[in-house]
């Protein structure tokens, strides 16, 4: 069936919110998406029927245990991993701080960590603090500020026999550029370093396959892909077995449970299943529009992947419309890849500046007109700094996703025209 955005929108009750008699336009998706009905259904059902602690002999406890196992299976299919390699936790940042402590137990003063200036602080600060605690050396890979991509030509120079870990993003949350994680993994493994990937901005937009990436850890967050505020961390089983977990003594020593601190937040896990069911539904409904539907190790994975692929094609169309419209204005600078031929190197997140307009003034105006977008550094401190945009107040970031319509992009562009007229 041809892609039907209105059918998709019917699955998102949050999109029905209005301001001044008009639907609110949600283009704040890179900061957090609206939640699919399947997520709400799963979470409600969990809190009614599966509300007990784990390990009991009674029905609600058994059901809760089954739910945790099911959520791990779903997330494993999502990332193409094994279910005992899936750790759920509060969010990407908290999971990364925790794992950085475990990894740090194997490091010594003088060891080196490679970070990038294209990363969100969630994949920078935990490693900076670890370096401070242990006396590690940090080396940086820069952003290529002309191409808006990570300058991977610097990889060879920053990797040394002392490199123990490379922390890198899969997609930048400002430019939308995609990183060649496989190339990073191959190079890092060449010197025996681990690779820790932040896939928070990639996960809503494209298929993740940790087997193909060859990395060691990968983290993402379900609230960026239509689910609840909860994080997922994948780690290779060998590493999870070997590493020491910071945990209470009574907790299991088996993986992945040894990395789960305290009581699992089951309703969030149920919500994650609901979010992945949404991808699956999109795949089932519209997957036949794909020239080559992706394969999978089982039917669920194939459908999940088809849904993501369908969304990607549609999202790119929205991003193209947005960039073309913004470029009509003299002086607008797209902070990212803007030519259609290279769209396979980016996700649909579009950031821009327009001197002398302050990003915050633009997004305030948009908010007054029922259009949700973000401004500032969006926690990509190094990226904004390297682009010289810190004094300027960062960028305006507009993030279309599969439930946005072409009319909404037009509404954003019309509103921007009006903003400019008023200045
Ligand atoms: C690229 C990227 N990494 C990490 C994070 C932090 O994610 P969390 O809120 O799950 O800690 C974000 C949040 O916006 C992000 O965009």
For this structure, what is the CATH class of the largest domain? Alpha Beta
- What spatial form do the alpha-carbon principal axes imply? globular
Mean pLDDT, nearest integer?
97
Q: What's the architecture of the largest domain in CATH terms?
A: 3-Layer(aba) Sandwich
Q: Give the domain tally.
A: 2
Report the CATH superfamily of the largest domain: Type I PLP-dependent aspartate aminotransferase-like (Major domain)
Q: What is the first-to-last residue Cα distance?
A: 45 Å
Which ligands are bound? pyridoxal-5'-phosphate
Q: pLDDT under 50 segments (min length 5)?
A: none
Report the total helices. Answer: 14
Beta percentage is 5-15%
Question: What is the share of helical residues?
Answer: 25-40%
What structural category arises from helix and sheet content? alpha/beta
Report the CATH topology name of the largest domain.
Aspartate Aminotransferase, domain 2
Radius of gyration: 22 Å
* Count of individual beta strands: 17
Adjacency order of strands in the biggest sheet: 4-12-11-10-9-5-6
Q: How would you characterize the overall build of this protein?
A:
- The chain is of the alpha/beta class.
- It has helices at residues 5-9, 37-49, 59-79, 92-104, 125-134, 155-158, 181-190, 210-213, 237-242, 266-286, 299-326, 359-368, 381-386, 406-422, and strands at residues 18-19, 22-23, 25-26, 86-89, 112-116, 137-141, 143-144, 149-150, 163-169, 194-198, 217-221, 231-235, 332-334, 350-354, 371-372, 374-376, 395-398.
- The protein folds into two domains: 5-35 and 299-422, Aspartate Aminotransferase, domain 1 (Alpha-Beta Complex); 40-275, Type I PLP-dependent aspartate aminotransferase-like (Major domain) (Aspartate Aminotransferase, domain 2), CATH 3.40.640.10.
- A seven-stranded mixed sheet has the order 4-12-11-10-9-5-6, sandwiched between helices. Strands 13-14-17-16 form a four-stranded antiparallel sheet, covered by helices on one side. Strands 1-2 form a two-stranded antiparallel ribbon.
- The model has no long low-confidence stretch (mean pLDDT 97).
- The site of pyridoxal-5'-phosphate has 14 residues, from helix 4.
